[in-house]
Inverse folding.
């Protein structure tokens, strides 16, 4: 890939493009405290109720019974996502306008045939991690070399969600390389913890974690190989995890606490499995963007991870099975 501009110029352009897609009337004057912002009047009473008082199943039922329109729901979550972005820097790509247009068409479909059998996710806004492809927007995965290269095809999962009637409206931030637990990169910067803006939101699905914690999304899609959903969940919604476990137990479902025997071995094993080629592929991508490693990537020392031999690979598989 040929880089025509300095990485800082590319990053500034991407951020300005994203920020320009937040309507002026949705702008936060002093983005410092989430509770004060949410009570500042940016969200109407009905929008607060839509985004605060329901889970995804309840939202779908209320759209089906016409208590809420898909447009009302989509607009409310787009607005709350815009607020969450200004507080925590959780979004990468914004397509609110397209989402609202889709929701209007879904409402028209229902009005034209009120007795139709609705698709399972009819009108439900769903946020997705930056790594999923959506035509017309980038999937940088935190790498400068993939900025300003909009996708032309869908990844399988977002296409499936659309086929089921969902409304996609934004993509969420990840770490440079998606290999660390801090959603920080040179393109969009760091996603902050919604409960404490001096802390990280975790990673690699950290943008999703922050967005959902602030109810800018009722349902978001991340990915997880080595904790990429679990880590942001602990960082952003730990109390909710405990409450979920209690409710599951109360419903008669067995909940098994996990105690890892050796976290250090587990981390070392997964990092070696991430890096079977000695991280040459990912280092080449970083170099092709003319960008430096961000602190979390630098700290794992990609260049110092050796390539694995076939014998090493067998040993790593054995260690993973044992863990």
């Amino acid at each position: 890939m040929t880089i025509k501009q300095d990485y800082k110029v590319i990053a500034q352009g991407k951020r300005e493009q994203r920020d320009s897609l937040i309507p002026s009337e949705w702008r936060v004057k002093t983005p410092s405290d989430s509770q004060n912002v949410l009570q500042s009047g940016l969200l109407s009473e009905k929008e607060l109720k839509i985004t605060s008082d329901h889970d995804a199943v309840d939202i779908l039922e209320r759209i089906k019974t016409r208590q809420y329109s898909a447009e009302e729901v989509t607009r409310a979550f787009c607005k709350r996502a815009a607020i969450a972005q200004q507080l925590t820097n959780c979004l990468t790509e914004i397509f609110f306008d397209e989402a609202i247009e889709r929701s209007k068409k879904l409402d028209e479909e229902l009005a034209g045939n009120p007795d139709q059998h609705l698709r399972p996710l009819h009108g439900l806004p769903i946020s997705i991690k930056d790594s999923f492809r959506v035509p017309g927007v980038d999937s940088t995965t935190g790498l400068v070399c993939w900025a300003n290269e909009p996708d032309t095809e869908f990844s399988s999962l977002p296409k499936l969600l659309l086929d089921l009637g969902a409304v996609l409206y934004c993509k969420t931030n990840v770490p440079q390389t998606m290999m660390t637990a801090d959603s920080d990169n040179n393109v969009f910067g760091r996603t902050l913890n919604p409960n404490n803006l001096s802390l990280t939101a975790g990673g690699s699905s950290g943008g999703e974690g922050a967005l959902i914690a602030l109810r800018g999304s009722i349902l978001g899609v991340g990915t997880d190989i080595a904790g990429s959903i679990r880590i942001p969940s602990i960082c952003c919604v730990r109390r909710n995890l405990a409450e979920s476990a209690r409710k599951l137990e109360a419903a008669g479902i067995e909940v098994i606490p996990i105690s890892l025997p050796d976290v250090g071995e587990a981390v070392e094993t997964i990092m070696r499995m991430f890096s079977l080629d000695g991280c040459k592929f990912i280092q080449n991508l970083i170099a092709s963007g003319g960008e430096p490693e961000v602190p979390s990537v630098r700290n794992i020392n990609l260049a110092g991870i050796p390539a694995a031999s076939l014998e090493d690979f067998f040993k790593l598989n054995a260690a993973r099975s044992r863990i």
